[in-house]
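Researcher: I'm preparing a figure for a lab meeting and need a structural model of a single chain. I don't have an experimental structure, so a prediction will have to do for now. The sequence is pasted below. Please return the structure as tokens so I can convert it later.
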Amino acid sequence: MSEAPETAKSVSYNAAEIGALAHLYRGEMYRSKIWRSRLDATTNWAVVTTGIALSVTFSSAEASPLPLALVGLLVLVFLLFEGRRYRFFDIWRVRVRVMETSFYGPILLGKGVNTENRWNEILADDYNGLRYHISLWEAVGRRLRRNYIWIFLVQFSAYLGKLMIHPVAIGSLDDLFFRAAIGPVPGEAILAMGFILHGALLLFAILSARHSKAVGRATRHRFKEDAMVRLASTEVEPEP
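Model: Understood. Here is the structure written out token by token.
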């Protein structure tokens, strides 16, 4: 005969332990805010460098559109940096969310501390073995959809605008290709690479959203099933 499935045992916390959990929540909230500020710093770098490239490119009629092309690659690097930072931020964000929905939520509803959904076990396991809760693929895609897609849109639109209307409007496609040329590289190749890069970014944003598998999104009643398999499987690497 098969054994009956093990049921979660209700855990009772005394006043001192609840106070310790409150301090733990404050600490995790602080860490979440610190990493949030690091995310904002990376986004600010991308915005500032894009603004500088816009100023340089449109400063005169003779200015080259090359700074706008190069800043697109620089913003892509910032996106990768921010995706990695977001994986660290998500660790603290998930812990804060777990305590808000599964610890403070029942208390505010007058139900006391409720551990039926085993949030305390999952949280304890996360402290014992620190792991990422989100893949780098999804982290980069999430930051791309929420912030960076607009930066890339401004950068690419300004680049096309520089080629097509500044200082005067083009008269033919030959004029467009002539303005887009960079040294020995023909304008057709430069434009093709630009459309391929931005098209790939758009496709990546869509695919990463459709295949989202981030865990740790706690609800008031229970965790997702994949959160019950210990949040994630990737060990955290130290951030430089």
